[in-house]
Amino acid sequence: xxxLTGKVALVTGGSRGIGRATAERLASEGALVxxxxxxxxxxxxxxxxxxxxAGGSAFSLRAELGTAGDVETLWAEFDRLVLxxxxxxxxxxxxxxxxxxxxxxxxxxxxxAFDELFEVNVRALFFVTQQGLKRLRDGGRIVNVSSAxxxxxxxxxxxxxxxKGAVDTFTRTLAKTLGERGVTVNAVAPGIIDTDLxxxxxxxxxxxxxxxxxxxxxxxxxxxxxxxxxxAFLASDAARWVTGQVIDATGGSHL
Length: 255
Prior knowledge:
By secondary structure, the chain is an alpha/beta fold. It has one domain (8-194, 227-248): Rossmann fold, CATH 3.40.50. The protein has eight helices and seven strands, in the order E-H-E-H-E-H-E-H-E-H-E-H-H-H-E. It has helices at 17-28, 41-53, 70-85, 111-132, 158-178, 199-202, 206-213, 224-235; strands at residues 8-11, 32-37, 57-62, 91-96, 136-145, 184-190, 246-249. The protein has a seven-stranded parallel beta sheet, sandwiched between helices. Strand 4 (91-96), helix 4 and strand 5 (136-145) form a beta-alpha-beta unit. Helix 1 (17-28) crosses helix 8 (224-235). The protein is globular and about 50 Å long. The termini are far apart.
């Protein structure tokens, strides 16, 4: 039996990159995983199929965050599907991973782009969590995916960095709120990770690889599994005494 056998997990943005690696990692420990996606149904089904092929349990659900009725759609789908696939209604692990990260310096950031960033990265995360609390069992786990940009100044993604600062504050405050229920709330803050999002400038470019590797004290670019393993730890009973923390997952970047 895995460390998460009998648990039900929801991973937002679970179809690609860090989200997919996290979904697969939680499933490998025995959790039934709901793989949320916004638009790419094919990628979500690939993730679900990979989990099932490895002997795990998962299902996908769609809700485009940042649009009207997004949170209600997400949880309605979750409630419907979890009864078909799992040990009963309820949630044990919520991983808030979904987000967007357009690049723009302060002078280039439009009001529309700014609003969309906060709609997806902050508002949706807040209300997905709010509505998830009535489903989350006592002793549950919430893990938010933040970013090292909340502590490292990168001018070309200033508005994105602001959203991750909000996630860090939300994490610490919610941990205080939910402590009496035995629910832990933590965040993971990755650095540069080799995902599809970074592929256009990172993969197949030796100069970019060297540049990105130079940020880390360990001398390499991070992989989705590097972050997923930390999330799995925080979701497990081994992390029962860790809450309100933002865990650096950058391989020692900008020390």
